[in-house]
Automatic annotation (TrEMBL):
Spans through the membrane: 19-36, 57-79, 91-114, 121-139, 175-192, 199-217, 229-253
Entry membrane topology: Multi-pass membrane protein
Organism superkingdom: Bacteria
Gene: lgt
Protein name per UniProt: Phosphatidylglycerol--prolipoprotein diacylglyceryl transferase
InterPro entries for the chain: Lgt
The species this protein was found in: Methylotenera versatilis (strain 301)
Family: Belongs to the Lgt family.
GO biological process, one term: lipoprotein biosynthetic process
Positions contributing to a 1,2-diacyl-sn-glycero-3-phospho-(1'-sn-glycerol) binding: R140
Keyword Secreted: no
EC number: 2.5.1.145
């Protein structure tokens, strides 16, 4: 049995202000995006990309993550609450971000980026996909440090007690997602994209990989108290991940058709 260390959510105290661990995890994700992106430009055959474009892509993507993530949380998870407290939509410092909303926000942001540079949208997404999982993993580590999004009750020997919640043994589901959505997904995408692939294939692998890992991890994650489990015993996270998996499979077969045309 393990006990969650109950970390201080503020990593660096600066008088009355402080830098939160979760904010630092966002920084890790953005720096990883830049570092890995520069490596791709310098060592892989990604024609047309420059460092200046990469910086611009990060700016567009960051806006997509922040606005999409917040809007997704409002619409997917607590719409009934925010419809009666609309001003609190802007209180992002109180927490409340959705990956799936952030993902949709990034899709829109990269569409605008593609229009600006006159590059095919799928080519942009194929370049960006391998740069994302490190940030996803960092975000899950931020969840773990904050002791939030804890897992369901378990009898597993590696279960963990989260004192801020109760004294029950629970899955450290944040660490499962850190490993799957961060390390495993990054490794798969980085290796797969190391060779030229058909347009859309790398993006398809991201959709299938993230959607599948998130769907499985949700079985160990405590459902949101204000939602619970939905139809067929699936959580909201699972229902939002299913379209990603299905779209990814369709895109994969569409990409493979290019090889035989």
């Amino acid at each position: 049995m393990f006990v969650h260390p109950s970390f201080d959510p503020i990593a660096i105290h600066l008088g009355k202000f402080g830098i939160h661990w979760y904010g630092l995890m966002y920084l890790v994700g953005f720096l990883a995006f830049l570092g890995l992106g520069k490596w791709q430009i310098n060592h892989r055959k990604w024609h047309g990309w420059t460092i200046a474009m990469l910086d611009d892509a990060l700016f567009f993507g960051a806006l997509g993550v922040i606005f999409g993530g917040r809007l997704g949380y409002v619409l997917f998870y607590q719409f009934s609450y925010f419809i009666h407290h609309p001003l609190e939509i802007f209180a992002v410092w109180q927490g409340g971000m959705s990956f799936h909303g952030g993902f949709l926000g990034v899709l829109v942001a990269m569409w605008l980026f593609a229009r600006k540079y006159q590059i095919k949208w799928l080519n942009i997404m194929d370049f960006v996909a391998p740069l994302v999982p490190i940030g996803l993993g960092a975000g899950r580590m931020g969840n773990f440090i904050n002791g939030e999004l804890w897992g369901r009750v378990t009898n597993a020997q590696w279960g963990m007690v989260f004192p801020k919640v109760d004294n029950l043994l629970r899955h450290p589901s944040q660490l499962y997602e850190f490993g799957l959505e961060g390390i495993v997904l990054f490794s798969a995408l980085w290796l797969y994209s190391s060779k030229p692939r058909e347009t859309g294939a790398v993006s398809a692998l991201f959709l299938i990989g993230y959607g599948s890992f998130r769907f499985l991890a949700e079985y160990t994650r405590e459902p949101d108290a204000y939602l619970g489990l939905l139809s067929m015993g699936f959580s909201m996270g699972q229902w939002l991940s299913l379209p990603m998996i299905l779209l990814g499979i369709w895109m994969w077969f569409q990409a493979q058709k290019q090889r035989f045309n």
